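Structure first, sequence second, as always.
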């Protein structure tokens, strides 16, 4: 485990201190739990988004190289 230092405002400190007493865990553990939960939710949201778009073009039949070439027709070598 790495040691780090953070600065929080007085109101946040009071809330964390009260919560740590209620849950009978250290303030540090409470912060670690909150950070882990926040990162877990963010990861879940990202994976959910990926699952929603995964395979949306699976029923399309086209050549990827041709598709890209068509989109870049206006870009010729030497054009600036």
């Amino acid at each position: 485990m790495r040691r780090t230092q953070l600065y929080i405002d007085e109101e946040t400190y009071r809330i964390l201190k009260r919560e740590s007493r209620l849950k009978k865990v250290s303030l540090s553990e409470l912060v670690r739990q909150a950070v882990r939960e926040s990162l877990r939710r963010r990861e879940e949201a990202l994976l959910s988004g990926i699952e929603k778009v995964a395979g949306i073009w699976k029923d399309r039949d086209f050549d990827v190289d041709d598709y890209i070439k068509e989109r870049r027709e206006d870009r010729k070598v030497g054009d600036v």
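Margin note: The two ends are 52 Å apart (CA to CA).
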